[in-house]
Model the fold of this input.
Amino acid sequence: MSPEEFRIHAHKMVDRMADYLAEVEQYPVKSQVKPKEILNELPTDLPISGGSMDSIMIDFEKTILKGITHWESPYFFGYFPASKSGPSILAEMLTATLGSQCMLWATSPAAAELEERMMGWLKQLLHLPKAWQGCIQDTASTATLTALLTARERYSNFQINQAGFDGSKFRIYCSEQAHSSIDKAVKIAGFGIDNLVKIPTDSSLRLDVGLLEQAIKADLQTGLIPLFVIAAMGTTGTTAVDPIDKIGALCTSHSIWLHVDAAYSGTALMLEEKAWMGKGLEYADSFVFNPHKWMFVNFDCSIYFVKDSKSLVNTFSITPEYLRTEEDELVNNYRDWGIQLGRRFRALKLWFVLRYYGAEGLKTRIRNHCRWVEALALKIDKHPDFEVKAEVTVNLVCFRWKPSLAQSEQLNALNEQLMKRINDSGKMFLSHTKIGRDYVIRLAAGHPELTEQHLNHAWDIIQQTALAIE
Ligand SMILES: *Cc1c(COP(=O)(O)O)cnc(C)c1O
Done:
């Protein structure tokens, strides 16, 4: 494609993108297609000769768009949001245009140095320990795996990388509410899932530190090696916050690596009133949070900090001759800070977002999301036929419909039915979790252009749909 042809199509495309952003509330939030509907519309045969951009876009409109669930809609309240924003989308266009590979300083010095500066800005924004260093990872899953591998190597003085190991002596601990990416990382790192110890939670779904201490002591007595603890700052089910200070003190006294998984709620550390969630963070050996969830940066962008960057680099550095450069001592070669060699230029979209909104613009939005969801939770809890089922710590409310005539054993089925009806209507999108045996509906509100009216309307839809079921 020549630059001139590109210019023509790019202008059309930007118009289409702006129309989409303006009209997104008119689409059904949840895609209404049936399984295989899209697949069957796509020709089985590979195109042999090329086609025009216009014909590709016609098929995009006809076949692809109806199979999209609109995460961009302010009425998408399911899971956790996948953030994006105007400045971030524009930066992604530039990133794609440059196509830089950001593995070494020398392969794009601006990318490496912008990344280093962004990590500094984020420490200021979230009030994180000044001595931490870090880099951008693709996902929290990768960051957690990276932490686990680094802990393994630090423990063995980097000998496991050399000689291999029998993983079955090591023990890793997290709460029963911790994210499934931890199970995956434990498997990949070679410890065996039997050595992931899931500690029960207290009545607020926070890791029970007393039970953690008992588990560690019992393991020590049988000759096992407590290696790694994951504390969640915002669990995925209910955004419960584990007591990081108490867990940290325990880890320090047993020389255990503490990893803090703040994938979602980490963004809220920018608010002074949420500083309580980070109490004890100075104990952490590693910390991850995802601007791609709730800081208006497009997927993928996961921020990974460590206390000791030397251990991290020693774990991952393998410098074959053809990748050695003159500047190795002076600069960060981020290829050595994680698993991937090739790396996208992710710092650019972070820079655009931080400059466009500024700390104040971000705080205003994040604070509003938290306040509006708290207000919604109060309304839900006041309603005689609804109840809030978990403490609201940020911008997620977990609730349950409890019509007065229903038997308690019917409630799970009723709530499932309520959520399915709402999602099938296309008006908004919710997801669910289980708290104990209870089926609970989750509403997470994190769109950058969200207003309190969106949430009021969402509450109306929930009540009206429930009424229609009764
Ligand atoms: C979403 C989430 C993850 C996984 O995030 P990815 O970036 O998709 O790997 C991990 N932990 C918590 C607490 C999460 O909410």
